[in-house]
Amino acid sequence: MQPTQMPVQVPEVIQLIDLKYYLIISTALFVIGIIGVLTRRNAIIIFMSIELMLNAVNLLLIAFSSYRSDPTGQVFVFFIMAVAAAEVAVGLAIIVMIYRNIRSIDVGVLDKLKW
Amino acid sequence: MQTDLLVKLIPLFPLLGFLINGLGFRRVPNGMVGLISSAAPLASFACVVLLFMGFSGPQPEKVALFDWITVGHLNIPFSFQIDQLSLIMLLIVTGVGSLIHIYSIGYMHHDAGYGKFMAFLNLFLFFMLLLVMGSNYVIMFIGWEGVGLCSYLLIGFWNKNTNYNNAARKAFVMNRIGDLGFLLGIFMIIAAFGSVEYTNVFEQAAGFPIGDPTVVAITMLLFVGAMGKSAQIPLYTWLPDAMAGPTPVSALIHAATMVTAGIYMVVRSNILYTLSPITLEIVGGIAVVTLLLTASIGLVQNDIKKVLAYSTVSQLGYMFLGLSVMGYTAGMFHVMTHAFFKALLFLGAGSVIHAMSDEQDIRRMGGLRKYLPVTYWTFLIATIAIAGIPPFAGFFSKDEILMHAYEHNKFLWVLGVIGSAMTSFYMFRLLFLTFFGRFRGTEHQREHLHESPATMTIPLLILAVLSAAGGFLNVPEVLGGSAKLANFLSPIFELSRQANPNAFGETLLTHSEEYMLMGISTGVAILMAVVAYVIYVQRAVLPESDLVERPMTEKVLYNKYYVDELYEAIIIKPIRGLSDVFYSFGEFLIDGVVNGTAWLVKQISGQSRRLQTGSISFYVFAMVVGIVLILGVRFFIKI
Fold this sequence. Notes:
Chain A is mainly alpha-helical. Chain A has helices at 12-15, 19-39, 43-67, 72-102.
């Protein structure tokens, strides 16, 4: 993208908090999400952790778009939300089916993907 | 009728016959097969006769079918050339071919592969016609290869028998060697003249000096091709083995037509050969050695077809001898007469074999005169013709060759006469052993003896007439003739005559000398016939069985000078050994590498299979680790 020539217009309210804090919090959220995915064994919790990661990214996008007054980031956020919603719908359906079949949603039990 | 149409029809008929019988094999009823396959060559023959009648000459007529190959400056049209030489060849091929097709109906009709056989014969005829009619060397080469293929198919026609298949393979491989030479010759012609069209090439060649190295190389290579097809030393051993095929095949392919393709090719390229005397000397040497060697082998053979096969090789030697002393017409004339009497001899032999229920050993025949009168008389005529006793066909053509040889080199003539003596002896030996004396076969065979059906005897009779009278087509002037054939073919040799007027001048021999030559060769032939009569009829000598120990010289002759064994030892064995080495090399080294690779991949995958635990958390962990690694690498190493 072409860098804009005009001076960056950032609302004053937002300027109270530095951009780097947003960076830190979103990184923290993302890492928490990863750890959640890697350590928990309940499929629902893993799902939630994934949402957490998605939202960390959303937060980052929003922050950058506000501080750079570039609306593209906002558009991406909506995309991500829509995709996440669809994904959750499908994923939850799968989890429900798995539960009905084996009466458990423990991912440790789900090793049918073996060769 | 238009020339163009006639020319296109000639090869079309046999091709159609081949397609109908070949594709409809097992569906076309037996009665139809014979009709279709014989109608094809007869129709072609009719077209050839019409062409012959309408041919005014002296310029060749070209009929272009289509543009075939055009590469850069090289343009090879698919066209036919009709001139005096191709007309003569066409008459021989279609005429004798038709007779042999008709004969095959009687000879093969009880065979399970009857339709297939007839289809192959038609295909052979088609290729032979291409060979003869093509207007350039490439079309000749198509025909050349095609007849080789059909020869292979027909020699190994009874493919249940391994020996026959080996004979077919031998013929094929030996011809391959010759064909390579021919092909290289064509390439050299393209390189030297930039064209393969006869008319073009010869016009350009006429401008070369005598003994030009390019021309010498070309003629040598072309002659290597002729060696293979026309069975000259060192590539002759396939022809005697080719007798494994059914008898009509031996008559058509290995006596009358295909084996004379080499002679046709040399006559066609006569200007090139005239320009390189050294090649002609070599051709002459090879021809004389061939004719003597094979004639001497023929003296002691006991298989009726083997004798005829060796005789064929020896007669081909005569033809090349004629060509080598620039008696091109004499060579062609001998091709023609030889086609008549050798086809007749083979067909007669076939008739005998037919009557004897597939017995080919002359030691078990004898006295067949009474049982097979037609076969006997026709065989007798052919024998007299080939032995060179006037006034039958062989006398005129062979004598003309010997006369040219005498003019060129007395020594060649002496060798030729010795060969002629041997020819006469072995042919009469064959005749007496087969048809005279008492019957030596089994009682069962005696009851079975019968004259062949009309489809077989009529061709015999026609060929007998031709063998008896064929010589009068070219009676030399000394005997009050007008050398018709020589005059007819004369335009073909126009360029040669310009290139080397001395060689083509009027004969320098006086009439008395010519009479002397004729007298000597006739006398020798008759003398040998008498000798054979005394030995085999009056004293009733029989060739011993194979178990008897023979004297040294006879043993060498009987075993064909051990040429086959020699080839086996110096060519086949080393090649076999080398092939075995390469085979084991391929077996162990190459296969080791290939299989080793497969083994390695299998092992690695067997180990890495264990990573696939199926636990999702582990997969995700691996993914995360991977992403972190990538990011880390990207972070520390700025690309």
